[in-house]
Amino acid sequence: MAGVQVSNLSRSFGAHKALDDVSIDFADGGFYALLGPSGSGKTTLLRQIAGFDFPDSGRIAIGGESVERVPVEKRRIGIVFQNYALFPNMSVADNVAFGLSVRGEAKAVIADEVQRALDLVQLGKLGSRRPHQLSGGQRQRVALARAIVTKPRVLLLDEPLGALDKALRVDMQIELKRIQREIGITTIFVTHDQEEALTMSDRIGILRDGRLVQEGPPEEIYDSPKSEFAATFLGDANILRGDTTGTGIRLPDGTTIAAGAGVSLAAGTKASCAVRPERIRIAIDAGVPDQTYANLLKGQVSKRIFAGNNSTYFVERDSQTIKVIVQNTGIERLVEGQDVMLSWSPESTVLIAAS
Ligand SMILES: Nc1ncnc2c1ncn2[C@@H]1O[C@H](COP(=O)(O)OP(=O)(O)OP(=O)(O)O)[C@@H](O)[C@H]1O
Q: Which key words are in the record (predicted)?
C-alpha cells in the first residue's frame, strides 16, 4: 500500500488551466473524495495520478517515489470508471482474471486470486456468467474485483456509482466502503454527489476551476467552510452579507450577527456569515431570551415543504430568503404567511471573507 502526494500540479489544455497548482496529500489507506462542479478538474487530476496524462509542472509521488515518468502499467494502480467497460464476450471470472493473465501468472494462482476477489465483492458464485446476465450493481462489482485483483497500491474511482439508481447506489456505497476497509487500500474517489462524499470519505478536497479551494475531514469542511463556494457546495448554507464587526457582521438594516468561527477580519470590511439551515430555530416569537441562540432575525414564512420527518421553511426578511430545516418531532407546524423569529447560536455561524 502507499500514499499519494501531489505537489504543485498544473495542467493546461490550450489556454485553459484544467489544474492550477494543486497540492494534496492522499494518506496511505485513506478514503479521499474529490468533489467539485463539472469541469473543475477532478478527472484531469485522476488521470495524472493514473498516468493516462502528464502534468505541465509539479510532482506526483506514490509511496514516496516520483512517478511522473513512470508509465501507467508500472504505477500499480487499480481504476474503476463509471462506464465499467467489461469484455462482453468473456465470463465474469475471465474479466476479473484479465490483468493477471496479461502479467503471465500461473493458471492455479489466477483461479485462486479471481475467486478471492469475487468473494470479496460477494459475487463468488457468479464467475461463469457473462456481463449481460448481471445487474448494473453486479457489473460494477465485477469492475471493482477486476481493479483490485492485481493488488494495486492505489485505487482510483471516477464516478463509479454514477450510473446506478439511488437505492442501489446507497447499497454500493456501503459495500465499497467495506471492501476499502477490508483491504486497506488508498482510495481516491471522484464524485459530483456531496452526500456520497460526506458519508464515505475520511477527507474531501473541493476543486473549482482547477484549484483546490478547501480540503480536510468532512466535518471540518461542513462546520468551517472557508469560502461561500465551499459553504454552499458541500451542504446547504444561508449566506448573510454585510460589514464585519470583527467578531461577526452588521447587516444592511443594522442587525448584527455574531460568529463563533471563521477568519478574523478587520472591522468595516465586507464579509459574509454562513449558517446551516438545520442550525436555525424557528418560532412564533423570541420566547425567553437565551444567550446560546444570540442571533435573532424576524421574518415571515413564504413557503413550507413537508418531507415527512422534517420540514423546510423559507423565511423572507429584508429581501433575502432564509432556509430553515426542522425535524418534525410533533410540535406545532408553522403556516405560510406567519411572522416568525429565527434564532441560532454564534457557534453555528462561520465568518467568511467576501469573495
Ligand atoms: N483532453 C482535453 N482537451 C481539452 N480540454 C480538456 C481535456 N480534458 C479536460 N479538458 C478540460 O479541462 C477541464 C477539466 O475537465 P475535467 O474532466 O477534469 O473536469 P471534471 O471536474 O472531472 O468534470 P466532470 O465532473 O464533468 O467529469 C474542463 O474544462 C475540460 O473541458
A: ATP-binding, Cell membrane, Membrane, Nucleotide-binding, Translocase, Transport
Q: What is the CATH number of the domain that holds 21?
A: 3.40.50.300
In this structure, are 145 and 90 located in the same domain?
A: yes
Whole-number Å distance, alpha carbon 158 to ligand 1 midpoint, is 13
Q: Are 156 and 143 in contact (CB under 8 A)?
A: no
DSSP E strand stretches across 173-319:
186-191, 203-208, 211-216, 238-244, 248-250, 256-258, 261-262, 270-275, 281-283, 295-306, 310-317
Nearest atom, ligand 1, residue 47 CA = 18
How far is ligand 1, taken at its centre, from the CA of residue 41, in Å? 6
345 CB within 6 A, ligand 1 = no
Per DSSP, the three-state class of 25 is strand
Q: How far away, in angstroms, is 288 Cα from ligand 1 center? A: 54
**73 and 107 co-located in one domain:** yes
pLDDT in tens, 244-299: 988 899 999 999 999 986 667 777 789 999 999 999 999 987 677 777 889 999 99
Domain termination residue (choose one: 193, 223, 253): 223
Domain match, 275 and 328 both: yes
Domain span at 337: 236-353
Q: What is the ipTM of this complex?
A: 0.96
Same domain, yes or no, for 73 and 167? yes
Say if residues 75 and 51 touch (Cβ distance below 8 Å): yes
Q: What is the CATH number of the domain that holds 241?
A: 2.40.50.100
What predicted TM-score, i.e. pTM, was given to this entire model? 0.88
